[in-house]
Amino acid sequence: MADDVEQQQTTNTVEEPLDLIRLSLDERIYVKMRNDRELRGRLHAYDQHLNMILGDVEETVTTVEIDEETYEEIYK
Q: Helices (H) and strands (E) in the chain — how many of each?
């Protein structure tokens, strides 16, 4: 019985970055990508190169425009 508790604690601990991803399987995650792209979806699988298979994904692309009069950034 003590071995079961110890093994469960070992599988739920985060010692390396990939451990955190492993614990996020079948959970909704947020992925920030290059060029101001963001993904939100359910993590189904991943590999050692961090290729991910997501389901029910929503993609958000943020564009920045500069107001020519005030030179302020406008996020859309």
A: 2, 5
CA dihedral 50→38→29→48, nearest 10 degrees, is 0
Whole-model pTM?
A: 0.67
What topology is assigned to 25-76 in CATH?
SH3 type barrels. (2.30.30)
Phi, psi of 7 (to 5 degrees): -65, -40
Q: Which residues, other chains included, contact 59 with Cβ-Cβ below 8 Å and sequence gap of 6+?
A: 37, 38, 39
Per-residue pLDDT of 2-54, as tens digits, reads 555 555 555 688 888 889 999 999 999 999 998 889 999 999 999 999 999 99
Residues 6+ apart with CB under 8 A from 1: none
Residue 41 near residue 58 (C-beta atoms within 8 A)? yes
